[in-house]
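Sorry, I am new here, but would you mind making up a protein's amino acid sequence and the tokens describing how it folds?
***
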Amino acid sequence: MELATTPLLPEGFTVPASRWTPPSRVLREKLDSRPYVFAPGVYDPHGAELVMYHRFEAVYFSGYSFAIGHLGTTDMDLYASVEIADGARRIVSALRKFQLTMAVGDPERGVPPRHLEIPPLVADMDVGYGNVFNVQRTTELYVGAGVAGAHIEDQVMPKRCGHIAGKALIPAEEFVAKLRMMRAVADDLGNRDFVIIARTDGVSATEAPESKRGLELAIERGLRYLDSGVPDLLWCEFPTAERGPTERFHEEIRKRFPEARFAFNYSSSFKWFSEPDPMTWDELASQGVRFIFITLAAQHAMGYGFHRLAEALKARAQDGYLELQRAEWSEEVPTRSHHLFTGVPYHHLLGEQLGSARFGRRVEQDIEPARVV
């Protein structure tokens, strides 16, 4: 890993030189060089930082995640483009800051620097939040936010989660126009590496201009989208985890486009543990899948973890929280010290170097380190 200095670090500290490589280029290079890229789904900057801490290849930010994490509601187009674009911007900004704070560690406590690559962010664009010119504005917001790639789907607006009934599709030619607009905006902004993922909900849509329905409609639409020459990846949203439809979709598309590459939602809506023979990620890669993501990974993890804590607090008061702390510190969970994870040592060191009187060792309280986080 090549390291480099930056004026945003105290003297003597470095970050990976890839910090200055455009995120879209990083993502494209990974898609080209790995069997597949996996991205856990997050709903906030803190979750994205944990993804980065564990050195995953990418971060995924879904509309459903945003709806849950920021509005406490479901995935039915209940927010605007500027809201989710700002959510993506804050995640990208947080990852860049997190790289700096981890590169410092905590010299006073003997915690060494941790040099982390910034994972590229792939974000949900739903249906583009309107017509082709809404897509123009949204793409501009995403590219400006530092998003590496985005997916857009062929539902009408307001759309709904791919696993909620009542989906309807716009005409295929209208969707192709949206894809072309995404490509035109990214290219115009000088980001020709921006990764575009075309999603079809044809398998389970109940309304569509075509007479076909189900998997046949999804295949026909997928071929039309690739005919446009725009999508880097094609994604079909399936209603279940059944392997047959997934395999057939990829197989039929590759008859015309042998080099076609796909995205796949290892969806949180499915009970994968109940499948008799669940698909593995290596199997998906053999079908041409290059980007795999779990849309609501962080939300389900938070729901499970906080539910367990809430039960413990309700039943055992302060002892329930002591149990959590013992587990955090015995397992060396990276967030066990919120001060270290959020970069207090970085802020004090750089603040002192810049001459700010309220930062640095001179303002540290004389507290026994073993008694605080």
